[in-house]
Amino acid sequence: MVERYDAVTQSLVMAAIGVGMTAFVYGLVGVIVKLDDLGMFLMKKDSGAAKTLGRGLIAFMPWFMRTLSVVGTLAMFLVGGGLIVHNFAPLHHFLEARHWGRRPRRQYRGAGNRPRQRRHRLRRRPAAAAPGKQRQIPLTTN
Which residue blocks in 47-113 are alpha helix, DSSP H? Predict the structure, then answer.
């Protein structure tokens, strides 16, 4: 679908997406950084609920920032490692030869060849009772 547009249009769309994503990410980071200031602001209010919310934000932010730094570091390693693996041909071929990064494909068997979903426990049926006699079957729980 993108190929049908000329290079100028493609470039302008990519630039607009880049600027929009940059503004979004910087705005999100700005809000995260200022959440502790919001907590301090709420603590100065007269309302008990606002003070409680402010104290909660102040107590939550150090934990959140530590968690965010670990998750962000892990994400950078994963992205950087992916870039290295995909752009360093010998390493890429080495890993691809060992099927790393690929999920095994499930073979489609067709509607009539699907494996059974339920597995039944085999139970012995009681032998038939002699004519005229009632056989008592003990009740068991599974």
Answer: 48-87, 89-97
Residue 101 has what DSSP assignment? T
Region of residue 59 (left: phi > 0; alpha: psi -120 to 50; beta: else): alpha
Q: Are 53 and 36 in contact (CB under 8 A)?
A: no
User: How many other C-beta atoms can be found within 10 angstroms of the C-beta atom of residue 55?
Assistant: 14
Model pLDDT for residues 8-58, shown as the tens digit of each residue: 999 999 999 999 999 999 999 999 999 999 999 999 999 999 999 999 999
The verdict on pTM exceeding 0.85 is no
Nearest residue to 35 (alpha-carbon basis) of 74, 63, 69, 1: 63
Report the Cα–Cα distance between both ends of the chain, in Å, rounded: 58
Q: Distance (Å, rounded) from C-alpha 34 to C-alpha 31? A: 5
